[in-house]
Write a structure and sequence with these properties.
The complex is a heterodimer. By secondary structure, chain A is an alpha/beta fold. Chain A has 12 helices and 15 strands. In chain A, strand 1, helix 2 and strand 2 form a beta-alpha-beta unit. In chain B, helix 13 crosses helix 20 and helix 16 packs antiparallel against helix 18 (718-728). Classes of the chains: A alpha/beta, B alpha+beta.
């Protein structure tokens, strides 16, 4: 009886073979997550970062992957909402990604970092620059130096180079972790250097923002300089309103707004706005030009600093994966911190022991619709 | 043997194959063709979709463009004076055409002059650096910008830029309408995407892609679409293949992508496949159960047949009819039943044969056995216990060495070797049967002879499997053969003696006739002469010599039993005493003689001369055997009676026929020696303590002319004459001897009966007569003497020398003669023939036959032919007178 049953089984099995598919699995891929705001008002930063990451992944995979294994990019949209960011982070953890490129904003980083520290999943953020993350041995590596450095450079530049003695400060509460800190840092540094803050204003980049009253108010205070810590669109519009209000003060902006969106929307009001950033959109570094060309070809637009640093973040992961046998997030973190020095798109950079990039910040002035280095004095 | 496949498996397999294979083939073909057809259909259908969408988009864009263009006259001269009107028109347009989210009128420097809906901070905004303005400045033509996500609504927007004179009209078109178009189209796994000129999504089935500004400009088909090329593409995404069709909206150059995973697109075919597979599986199952069901109908009877066969093998021949509905099985069952009957009959036969064999095996005294090729018993009958002394249980372990004497074993080994040699050569046909006599050894060690008849046992293939045979104890047969050989030897001896006797008798006969003449004439001459005549002395000397010659002839005749002289009664005791005196005088004193003779008379009827000679010869031999060393001669005589059932005390004599050492006395003579009838006998024993007789010599001592003595010492006739005399009297002689110890001769002679003793009387006067007598003899001397003797007695005598003449004479006058006396042996006609003729022609005439020797056989024949008496030659006067008178007086001569 047993014998009979066994050959019956064989026949049934043979009969079922045509119904089965997918016998051959492709070589298992490395999973990398991307976390950033793809929708909403911060979408320009998120989309740019995502596109930069996509470009890097596509280039790596086109070149044969890492040791023959391709990289798979799992993209999550945090909508710049801490709760949404946490959920997206959880989804990435469950998907078993080795590293997350992101988040793009400090607010989300604040929300997801405790989770990642708990789970031991490494975040490589292209853009998070809040000082509050500095000096901590955690699962966050940052490719943009902490604000403190930019703020320090900006304060000194404003005071010493531009002779701006009085300043008004405006910042966006929608990205408070970044903006408030940025503003406060500037205030203390600027005043520490002998400058005077004559006005501090805050706004919330939600719904319809009315910048005309704010511009009038700022203009009326007659500061020699106005620092805006906001996103590109808000900063651009505020610049236009300030200009319309007859502002004569120099406008300084945090690196946050340093994107083509600012150029497109600020019109002529954007001319002369001073940025301090480790990222130079007008860089002529070979690697950067190559990247810029590839990005434009792939997405039909110029890359922002978010795209560039996200691209660099993926490259960091690639280097780690190509060196590590059976990689895991802890190993990747250890590898990257041990390796320290990396070739960036606009020049080599280093990571300190806490995973913070050291790049020198430079002053950039918008001139003829472009971010340009200020003429040397 | 390799286990063979079961019929059941094979049948089931082929049945399944037959049911399933065509089904599979047909299904496979259907799926194959259906698949191709469906794929073609799918491509066509999706192509219609993409083309339709493209057309719809084209219409939509054109429509919107026309809507937008209708605003152009409103801003013909957008100076301040008409500002209110323009703003109102724009506002109305935005209200009426809600897809237009925003309509702006820019001046040549890119500043917002008018905007609807009116925003609080929008007027005066510098949009000179927006891509739309920059582009239109460059190309001075209306154009559609790439899509973007509205900061305000989060929805995909598009700007239409229309340069008009020194102004620029910018309309922001909400593309959610496009999303609506797409969402109207449904399909399994169907993905539809409308892309802008940079490859970003304007609309997609998955709206998230739009909001996240996903960009697929690098993808297969999209790249081509952006270059204005439409087409169908098969793309691999992960593990899934999809078919992607791309069409381009001519107005904007937007690619429209319709994509469907083949798995989904061909889902119907997969469903059909699943149905087919399920059907196949079901078909297989049904086929399997059908095969099983049908097989059961075949196997049940087959199984039954198997059980039947087993039952037949177990001896049960009562077969139930087969189940099943096939004619073949009925035939098979009939065959089985017929076979069963035949087997039953045959088995009964075998059983009967076995029973017979068992009876045979249990009761046969011969030992029947079989052996394997290693000469180990594989079977034996129970008779082995009486045959070899071993039990049946011990039989298998027996070795040939245990049961065969070494000589026989050697013979066996030689036979085996010969057999093996023959087998190796394979030239000669192997010997199949043997008959051998072998000496066996019983378990108790005793030996015996057995005849072995054995043959090869072969199996069905003719291969030699062993031996089988019958062994028979032939001890008795062997003994009988030995006895027979002894008897034959005796017979030969007897015949030899007979021949010698015949020869001697023949000579003696003729010599006797001559003597007859001499004695007769001498007697007649003496009768004629007076006693004082000096011639008488010479005549008497002649007569004396003649008588001595006659005695010698008689001795010869006696040896050859051709003569009988019983006419005298001899007293053995007296005769022996007389004789011993004679012997004593001629015997050395070193030899002592012990007579052992009874006081009573031991009478026999015999010729005293012959008896005298017998005893003398035996004694002379005994004395001679003791010559030189001396010894002891015992001569005894005693009566002896052989009564068949009763033995008689032997009285200190050695046993007859046995050869104990000489000097041993005692024992019994229980039966007479061979050839001696029961009755009264006188036993004469002559025993010496001489050299004895060598056994080799012993058997020849009675041969004539055989002697151990030197030349001149003996004739070699002594013992042969003794033998002849004793046999002549119906007696017997036996000898036992031990070399160095001595010999014993026992002589048995018939004793006179009482009746015979009474007849004994003194000598009667010679009777005379006057009757006519015819005397016939071929010897003229005899007839002459006979005639003269008879004439002296007073008878009238006529003689004839030719029996035929005598017969002729008789026929002339048959009643003439009272008595005819004829010779026995005559030329032309024997005395017996003559007697027959005389009886025929002259029945009243009495007949006497005279002969030199008388044979008992001849006597018998003669009596039958009417002869009444016999006369010994040479004729003695008194004997002749008495015999003739007795015959003529009517008596007969015994």
């Amino acid at each position: 009886m047993g014998k009979k049953k066994s050959w019956l089984k064989v026949i049934l099995l043979l009969a079922l073979i045509p119904a089965t598919t997918g016998f051959w699995e492709k070589k298992e891929s490395y999973k990398i997550g991307f976390l950033g705001p793809l929708t909403g008002r911060q979408a320009d930063l998120g989309v740019a970062g995502r596109n930069g990451a996509i470009l890097a992944v596509e280039e790596i995979n086109k070149a044969g992957g890492i040791g023959g294994r391709p990289i798979e990019l799992l993209v999550e949209d945090d909508r710049n909402d801490p709760r949404e960011g946490e959920q997206a982070g959880t989804r990435l953890i469950k998907a078993g990604v080795l590293t997350v490129v992101g988040p793009m904003t400090s607010g989300i980083a604040e929300a997801v970092l405790p989770l990642m520290n708990r789970e031991g999943l490494l975040l490589i953020s292209p853009t998070v620059s809040a000082n509050s993350f500095s000096g901590k041995d955690d699962f966050l590596i940052r490719l943009t130096p902490p604000n403190f450095r930019n703020v320090q450079a900006l304060a000194r530049h404003a005071l010493q180079d531009q002779k701006t003695k009085t300043m008004a400060v405006v910042y966006d509460l929608a990205n408070r972790a970044y903006a408030e800190e940025w503003a406060n840092n500037f205030i203390s540094l600027f005043t520490g250097l002998g400058g005077e803050i004559i006005q501090v204003r805050e706004y919330r980049s939600e719904g319809v923002s009315l910048f005309e009253p704010l511009a009038r108010e700022l203009t009326a205070a007659r500061p020699e300089g106005i620092l805006i810590v906001g996103n590109a669109l808000d900063t651009a519009l505020l610049c236009q309103k300030l200009k319309a209000a007859g502002n004569k003060a120099l406008i300084y902006s945090s690196g946050w707004a340093m994107s083509p969106v600012f150029i497109q929307n600020s019109g002529r009001a954007g001319e002369g706005v001073i940025f301090f950033s480790a990222f130079d959109p007008g860089s002529t570094a070979e690697r950067y030009l190559k990247f810029q060309k590839a990005y434009q070809g792939r997405f039909g637009a110029l890359p922002s600093f978010g795209a560039a640093t996200a691209y660099e973040a993926v490259q960091l992961v690639r280097q780690a994966l190509s060196q590590l046998q059976e990689p895991n997030p802890r190993k990747i973190k250890s590898y990257l911190l041990a390796r320290k020095r990396f070739p960036g798109l606009q020049g080599d950079f280093e990571l300190d022991t806490n995973g913070e990039a050291r790049r020198s910040a430079v002053a950039l002035i918008v001139s003829q619709g472009r971010f340009q280095s200020p003429p040397s004095k | 043997m390799k286990p063979r496949r079961s019929l059941k498996t094979v049948l089931n397999f082929y049945l399944l194959l037959a049911a399933w294979l065509p089904l599979t083939l047909i299904s496979g073909l259907i799926i194959y063709f259906l698949y191709g057809h469906l794929k073609e259909n799918l491509i066509q259908k999706n192509f219609y979709i993409v083309k339709a969408l493209s057309g719809e988009m084209e219409r939509f864009i054109n429509e919107q463009r026309q809507v937008f263009s209708s605003l152009v006259p409103v801003v013909e001269d957008p100076d301040r004076s008409k500002a209110g009107m323009i703003q109102a028109s724009l506002t109305a347009a935005v209200v009426n055409w809600p897809l237009w989210e925003k309509i702006q009128v820019l001046d040549d420097r890119g500043r917002v002059l008018f905007q609807a809906p009116a925003g609080p901070e929008s007027l005066g905004l510098d949009l000179s650096r927006t891509p739309a303005f920059l582009t239109v400045q460059k190309i001075r033509e209306p154009h559609w910008s790439p899509s973007f996500i509205s900061m305000e609504t989060g929805e995909p927007n598009l700007t239409y830029v229309f340069p008009w004179k020194k102004w620029v009209l910018v309309g922001t078109l909400n593309l959610k309408k496009v999303q609506e178009f797409i969402s109207r189209i449904q399909g399994r796994g169907l993905e539809i995407g409308v892309l802008d000129s940079r490859g970003g999504f304007i609309a997609h089935t998955d709206q998230r892609l739009v909001r996240q500004q996903a960009n697929i400009r690098e993808e297969e088909g999209v790249r081509q679409g952006l270059e204005g090329v439409e087409g169908t593409y098969f793309i691999d995404q992960g593990q899934e293949q999809s078919v992607r069709q791309v069409a381009v909206v001519p107005e904007t150059g937007w690619p429209i992508v319709v994509q469907q995973p083949l798995r989904e697109a061909l889902a119907p075919i997969n469903q059909i496949r699943v149905i087919f597979i399920s059907g196949l599986a079901l078909g297989l199952l049904v086929a399997f159960y059908l095969a099983r069901w049908n097989a059961q109908r075949i196997y049940r009877p087959l199984g039954q047949l198997t059980r039947m066969a087993r039952r037949i093998s177990e001896g049960d021949y009562q077969l139930a009819p087969l189940e099943g509905r096939y004619r073949e099985f009925d035939e098979l069952a009939e065959g089985f039943q017929a076979m069963s009957r035949e087997v039953e009959i045959r088995e009964a036969g075998i059983r009967e044969a076995l029973a017979r064999f068992q009876i045979l095996a249990d009761n046969v005294t011969d030992f029947i056995w079989t052996m394997d090729n290693d000469f180990r018993f594989t079977f034996g009958t129970p008779s082995v216990e009486s045959f070899l002394g071993y039990t049946l249980r011990e039989l298998p372990a027996l070795k040939l060495e245990q049961i065969l004497a070494p000589e026989s074993l050697e013979m066996i080994h030689k036979n085996i070797e010969a057999f093996h040699r023959a087998r190796e050569k394979a030239e000669v046909p192997l010997q199949e049967k043997w008959v051998m006599e072998m000496e066996h050894i019983r378990k108790d060690g005793s030996r015996f002879w057995a005849e072995l008849r054995a043959g090869l046992l072969r199996d069905g293939g003719g291969k030699v499997r062993g031996l089988g045979g019958v062994s028979r104890d032939i001890t008795i047969l062997k003994k009988m053969e030995e006895k027979k050989a002894e008897m034959e030897k005796m017979l030969r001896q007897s015949q030899k003696m007979e021949a010698i006797g015949t020869l001697a008798g023949g000579i003696a006969h003729d010599f006797n006739n001559i003597l007859g003449g001499i004695l007769g004439y001498a007697e007649l001459a003496l009768m004629d002469l007076s006693k004082t005549d000096p011639v008488c002395e010479s005549l008497e000397a002649i007569q004396k010599a003649g008588l001595r010659a006659r005695d010698l002839v008689r001795q010869i005749l006696a040896f050859s039993r051709k003569s009988e002289n019983r006419d005298e009664v001899v007293e053995i005791g007296g005769l022996t005493r007389e004789l011993l005196k004679l012997i004593r005088s001629t015997t050395p004193s070193s030899i002592e003689i012990f007579p052992d003779l009874p006081a009573t008379d031991l009478l026999i009827r015999a010729d005293p001369v012959q008896i005298h000679q017998v005893i003398l010869n035996l004694c002379t031999n005994a004395v001679q055997s003791m010559k030189g060393k001396g010894g002891c001669l015992r001569v005894g005589a005693r009566p002896l009676t052989f009564d068949p059932p009763v033995g008689v005390e032997a009285g200190g004599l050695p046993e007859l026929g046995v050869a104990p050492p000489a000097g041993v006395t005692g024992g019994k003579i229980t039966e007479p020696p061979p050839g001696v009838p029961s009755g009264d006998y006188v036993q004469i024993t002559i025993q010496d303590t001489g050299t004895g007789i060598d056994p080799a010599v012993l058997e020849r001592i009675f041969d004539p002319f055989f002697t151990t003595k030197g030349p001149g010492e003996g004739t070699g006739l002594g013992l042969s004459v003794v033998h002849g005399i004793i046999n002549g009297y119906g007696g017997a002689i036996q000898v036992t001897s031990e070399p160095g110890q001595g010999s014993v001769f026992n002589v048995l002679l018939p004793r006179l009966s009482k009746a015979e003793l009474q007849q004994l009387a003194g000598p009667a006067p010679i009777p005379r007569g006057k009757e006519l007598i015819l005397l016939v003899d071929d010897e003229r001397a005899i007839t002459d003497i006979g005639r003269r003797m008879l004439e002296k007695l007073g008878y009238e005598v006529e003689t004839r020398n030719d029996p035929r003449e005598a017969l002729q004479f008789l026929r002339q006058d048959p009643r003439f003669f009272n008595l005819v006396i004829t010779d026995l042996t005559m030329p032309g006609m024997s005395g017996l023939e003559l007697a027959s003729e005389v009886k025929k022609t002259a029945g009243s005439s009495k007949i006497i036959i005279s002969s030199g020797y008388q044979d008992w056989e001849v006597r018998e024949q003669a009596l039958e032919r009417g002869v009444v008496a016999f006369l010994d030659k040479p004729l003695k006067f008194s004997h002749l007178a008495r015999t003739v008178r007795e015959v003529l007086d009517g008596g007969t001569c015994s």
